[in-house]
Amino acid sequence: MNLSSPSGMSERRITKDRATLSPRPNLFDYDAERSRFDWANAWKLLDGLPGGRGYNIAHEAVDRHATGSRADKVAIRWIGKTGERRDFTYGDLRNETNRFANALAGLGVRPGERVFILMGRLPELYVAVLGTLKACCVASPLFSAFGPEPIATRVGIGEGHVLITTPELYRRKVQAVRDKMPSLSHVILVGDGEVDGPGLHRWPSLMHAASPDYTIAPTDPEDMALLHFTSGTTGRPKGAVHVHGAVVAHHVTGLYALDLHEDDIYWCTADPGWVTGTSYGILAPLTNGVTSIVVEAEFDAQTWYSTLERERVSVWYSAPTAIRMMMRLGAEAAKGYDLSALRFMASVGEPLNPEAVVWGLEAFGLPFHDNWWQTETGGIMIANLAALDIKPGSMGVPLPGIEAAILRHEKGRNVELIEELMVEGELALRKGWPSMMRGYLNEEERYRKCFVGDWYLTGDLAKRDADGYYWFVGRADDVIKSAGHLIGPFEVESALMEHPAVAEAGVIGKPDPVVGEIVKAFVSLKAGYEPSESLRKELLGHGRKRLGPAVAPKEIDFSANLPKTRSGKIMRRLLKSRELGLPEGDLSTLESDEK
Amino acid sequence: MTEAEIRRLACEILSDIAPDTDPATLAGDKDIREGLDIDSMDFLNFIIGLNKRAGVAIPEEDYPKLFTMDGVVAHLIRETQDLPGAQ
């Protein structure tokens, strides 16, 4: 692979000689495949439930391999925090997930009911998600770094019926808000530890009592399968609904965008509490029949290098925040490890800066392939591909079966396709791909607003170049992106305003070189409260207790009066411009201010 | 720096980052990140704080040595004994 700058420094390009790539990329001839591809044919890559009884994600991910030649192949290789290892073959995984589906049935849990999973990356998490899908219940994994408020909000919106968690997480994050989740009938506890509460069950006793035989009921591809939460600028988090038929997209994108081959050892570093960790940390590698590595421990650059080496990882899917942290350690650090098995590296979560793409070449002898998608799209939509040149800083090209466009519109009206090159507009996708969300749960109006005509509006601003590569420009709204995760400012503001000292709160994303943006809050105080260092710490602690470290503000500033519109909305954009020392722009709607 | 000084300093920095916790009650061999529920960004700020206030350089490759309070103490005792003013 060569790095060249054909047109000076403005556009670097990592060129590839695809004929020399080994193994041959699954998506070898992009143009031909793009014109030939049809989702209707892609279903043939799957098996379907025996007897034509529909399509169930868990059947495609587990059972079809377990009853075939991959029965004894390792499906998931789990590496615990203290280095212990557990292998699950496809056969093992079938038995365990069957047991769990039976256990749910034994508890009287019915198809369509929502099962939330709140835990670190333990083997039980993977069994629970897949077993839930087998039972035709809806799986919703939650990030274990969420605090009690985000957990209660999400379980509440999803009308969660079952929660699977650990005793420690239950004590720390669930017990105090249990009364906010009246729909919750059963809590299944994984691991030891005493807790009290209604409807508690122990994982081992449920599983021991359950049979390893299970027949998946007929499953309509349009049946709800997964519920992934995401955040908007205003209002509560949104539960994006995905259906069993999404599995065809998980499978095809694993094949095309991650270039998964039979002998690959694959490692997706994302937590299943975020959509990447489910679509690509659980489902796509399994439907493609590869061996998937699961690492329980949190990020540490050297541990990651040694994992790549020891496990002989060949395909690695990671995220910009982690890559930038590894860059801090320097390319030299990689040289001490034998990473010869590694052949394909991809990144997602936020745009990977060009220096980081190029750094991959220096440290690994391989470039990172950035790709783009969202919770709502269910799978990878736009990607730098194994067989195509990489343009560092670009999100790549639309996958076969995906039609992207740049639109100009005024809040959904006067829609116009932007045909000019490198002109910025909203990135849109022609609706109808299989993993497109089917709704925001119980939020029809917010769902409808995501579409205009035939197009799904992504909320991201982007532009397209002459070669059809897309370039991310920014968000069209105030949503914060920290370490690749979307955080809704409203959720953070609401939690802060529950503190007795806080009158108003405005929350923004403050640019940060490592995590993209950090959550920063501006608060004004109620009469009788004075800004002080101890109050600032108290508010930081309050935020962490309610929201957890992944969502809570990292910085809080006091402000006598926050800038607001005439209708009383806090102008986050203005707070942000001031934080960054940028021009303040159009202030015609500004009503009150601290000046 | 003495062990007590190091512990006090580390707890001070950690309670600035996670004011809702009491770092002093953390077991010496417990992973600080897990025990106090801090993320990688918070941990980086902890290292930066130690670096500034103890006056020792902490290269990235030493981060894993600082995942526990015992590790922080051992590392900082070693790193500060050669500094001017150390006994």
TrEMBL record, chain A:
<keyword id="KW-0547">Nucleotide-binding</keyword>
<dbReference type="Pfam" id="PF13193">
    <property type="entry name" value="AMP-binding_C"/>
</dbReference>
<dbReference type="GO" id="GO:0005524">
    <property type="term" value="F:ATP binding"/>
</dbReference>
<dbReference type="Pfam" id="PF00501">
    <property type="entry name" value="AMP-binding"/>
</dbReference>
<keyword id="KW-0067">ATP-binding</keyword>
<dbReference type="InterPro" id="IPR000873">
    <property type="entry name" value="AMP-dep_synth/lig_dom"/>
</dbReference>
<dbReference type="GO" id="GO:0003987">
    <property type="term" value="F:acetate-CoA ligase activity"/>
</dbReference>
<dbReference type="GO" id="GO:0006085">
    <property type="term" value="P:acetyl-CoA biosynthetic process"/>
</dbReference>
<feature type="domain" description="AMP-dependent synthetase/ligase">
    <location>
        <begin position="64"/>
        <end position="441"/>
    </location>
</feature>
<dbReference type="InterPro" id="IPR045851">
    <property type="entry name" value="AMP-bd_C_sf"/>
</dbReference>
<protein>
    <recommendedName>
        <fullName>acetate--CoA ligase</fullName>
        <ecNumber>6.2.1.1</ecNumber>
    </recommendedName>
</protein>
<feature type="domain" description="AMP-binding enzyme C-terminal">
    <location>
        <begin position="491"/>
        <end position="569"/>
    </location>
</feature>
<dbReference type="GO" id="GO:0005829">
    <property type="term" value="C:cytosol"/>
</dbReference>
<dbReference type="InterPro" id="IPR020845">
    <property type="entry name" value="AMP-binding_CS"/>
</dbReference>
<dbReference type="InterPro" id="IPR042099">
    <property type="entry name" value="ANL_N_sf"/>
</dbReference>
<dbReference type="InterPro" id="IPR025110">
    <property type="entry name" value="AMP-bd_C"/>
</dbReference>
<keyword id="KW-0007">Acetylation</keyword>
<keyword id="KW-0436">Ligase</keyword>
UniProtKB/TrEMBL annotation, chain B:
<protein>
    <submittedName>
        <fullName>Acyl carrier protein</fullName>
    </submittedName>
</protein>
<dbReference type="InterPro" id="IPR036736">
    <property type="entry name" value="ACP-like_sf"/>
</dbReference>
